[in-house]
Amino acid sequence: MARSIALLVAMVPWCCDGSPAAWCARGDSCWPTAAELQALELDLAPQADRSLHWPGGDAPYPLPVPDDSPGGQPLYGMSQNLRPLYVQDASEAAFGSCMPGENASDFCKQSTRNWPRVWSPAFIAWPLTSTHVQRLIKFASKHRLCVGVAGTGHDFLNRHSCDQGLFIRTTLMKEIQWNLYGNNAWGHADGTVRLGPGLTFTEIQKSGSEQPRKSFVASGWCPTVGIIGWSTGGGHGPYGRSKGLGVDNILEVELVTGDGTSVVANATTNADLFWAIRGGGGSVWGVVTAITVRAHAVPERGITSVALQFIWDADDAGLEELREVVQAYPDWALGLDARWSGVGVLVSSVGGESGGPQWSLNIAYVVLGGVDEMDLQNAVEQLVPTNCSSSFAQHVTHYEDAWGFAKGASNVPPYNPAPILNASSPLWNAIESSLIDEDTMKARFPEHVVSLFHGQKSTFSGTFFHDIPGGSTEPVTATSISPGFRDATLLLEYPGSEELSANTYFSESSYELPGASWKERYWGKSNYQKLLSIKNEFDPHGLFWCHHCVGSDERDMKADRRRLGDILV
Fold it and tell me: Which of 5, 34, 196, 443 is most buried, judged by most C-beta within 10 A?
């Protein structure tokens, strides 16, 4: 035991100022005093109204709701009359992590987010303005506090938390300014929209539906996902093949950098930072206080969703028909025009409707346009086997606008607030992802996915997304996503998918990737080196951190340092 502790002590980095070893901890002289915290709170407009209460009905959720929250309210109902600052007491900090639930402490309710880790922040702030954010960053810098940022906190497998740091929640910053004229600064024919960092896609699409010309923004599939994390991480979704990735739609970003300065980044001002944010992902560049993106006009005939469902018994006959459909899928999907963006979900279930094991394949596409503008029946018949023995169903739904589509799943998915306790948890690396090109989609994907499902003895599922444009109106070098992402046709998300490609989607991937492979899988080697240089320029003291993000290499040792402290205590 003593030898193990000695080895851990030897692993703690002896780094220069600004490294993880220099982050402040409770008991250090740099730790904020009660008087300093009170002064900070007074600077954050404590008298201002802060509310995230959901009014009910089909109103957009202002924040994703935990799946066990009573009354369907965010933050377990503690969503009104919020204070600008919450401070964790020492006894709760000693416990190590916040346990979710309606009986949790006020501090733990305020820290609610998707899949929390086994640690928790020491301070939670709810800023209302860019000035508030500047004050918070200067406070964090003075006290050497690691900063984590969340608009909605939807981050899959939660990599954006700082143990005993400052958690800045920008959720209350929900300004929306539409400019639907073609004479905007960027010359985008459909106009632009400037958005606050706390907005979810349901809130944006609802606002777009209320404009004189119905409009929408490129979005993710999950309506309660926030605009910032999705856009800066790459951003795929139901309009992607036609309107581009999230990074393609970013026109300008306003943010507070590591020294507390408010800056603007676009193609001509702070262009390197702008390039980094468009794909560099994570909250490591600063705290975004506003983002301007392209607006898009809703087609005259609205939006259509097409859903196809196949169910087979898990026997030899079912396997052959499953293989036939999956082998036909690549050519079928590649034959659809860019208005179609889709997702497929394959499920192997132990006990289906027939009582025995079954396989199901659900394919759903969102189409920009009306049913009368497409040869739908012909398209469906090209995928369905001639003598189809499976249970097959087809559903077509028309929506007037993107808000109509989004509100059908307004809290999907909800937060799962249960902590992922350790690396042995099956959810620790629940999401493997792989970005594959057209050749791999045709030659390797069908048999690979069929072989994974064949012989499964337990419930198993996998997802694939056909919503990547496979090119862009933007030059390849205009964004910092990997070249492999730019060339991809399909995004796979299921265990074993990483073996099909050297490229992984930053925002949806395993929590751990082997060694330093994450740098190349997310961004490519040359892009990563440039990203790291920009990171060091705008955040030289490493104030902003997230796991397997740009510049996080040594900062991951912070968790080891904290765990070591627990052992020694």
Answer: 196
